[in-house]
TrEMBL record:
This is Tight adherence protein C. One of its GO terms (cellular component) is plasma membrane. Residues 175-300 form the Type II secretion system protein GspF domain. It is a multi-pass membrane protein. Its main location: membrane. The chain crosses the membrane at residues 6-23, 109-128, 134-156, 281-308. PANTHER family: INTEGRAL MEMBRANE PROTEIN-RELATED, PILUS ASSEMBLE PROTEIN. It comes from the Bacteria. The keyword Transmembrane applies. It is found in: Cell membrane. The keyword Membrane applies.
Amino acid sequence: MSPLLIGAIIGALFAIGLLIIVFSSPPARPVKLEDRIAPYLREAPKPSALLAGTPASLPGAARRILLPRARSLSKVIDRWVGGSGSVRRRLRALDSAQTIEDFRLEQTVWASLGLVAGAVAGVAMTFVSPKFELVSVVLFAIGGAIGGLFGRDWWLSRQVRSREERILAEFPVVADLLALSVTAGEGPAGAIDRVSRLVGGELGQSLQGALAKVRTGMPLTEALEEFAKFSSLEPLTRFIDGIVIALERGTPLADVLRAQAVDVRENGKRRLLESGGRKELAMMVPVVFLLLPTTVIFALFPGLFAIVELSQ
């Protein structure tokens, strides 16, 4: 690829980016009807801080400039990629204040960064290999955009898995403390409040969120069911279901919680044994493919050396 063509590509990309910035700026955008009447409408004060709106994830100036175009791109991405239900479930499992629109905006940003990185890598390859064609630069850019698009989805799944691992690590302690608190005479809501404030962590914060809904008027059983509905952890879901059934049927909650705590500890032991088994197999890899061949070489080398000396 000639230097003239490379310069033309860089100039065209710069011009396209500059035009997008200019036409996305507030003075160049048509004013919508909702923006015209917004200054004349006053929003009623929120009755509770729990009902406050989600804070904007972008700074004010950047949000005003980038949000309209990014929202259009995010709608296109949502139509192409789909999976809004899965994204909503994972965001709820992450206990994130983000909406699907915010996540699609982040996917758009990641795809844009991947597009730029792929284009830069493709242009750099033209300097390394003169046979590198323009089509390859375009393919690099498209591959970077696709990688950024699905990379954000992969990162969300990884965040959810990391949070679930932390919850599972905290779960046995929370179950034991809840059983102890209820056995000592504490009520269900009071026991959950005390334990969640004492333990903290991811599970404690999630329980505090469920109690916040209870304080706004939601029944405790409904708040716990909603908390368990968006969790993919089977032990936690089973534990919450046991509490809800005991509260609805009038079963002695202390006995149920003690039995549930025993099940949680047994489940923790089983997961530890499974993890140890997987680690044992992983530990065999360097032994079989590194230490064992080295031992065989050291054992056979003197004999092979003697045979070579005798043959000479």
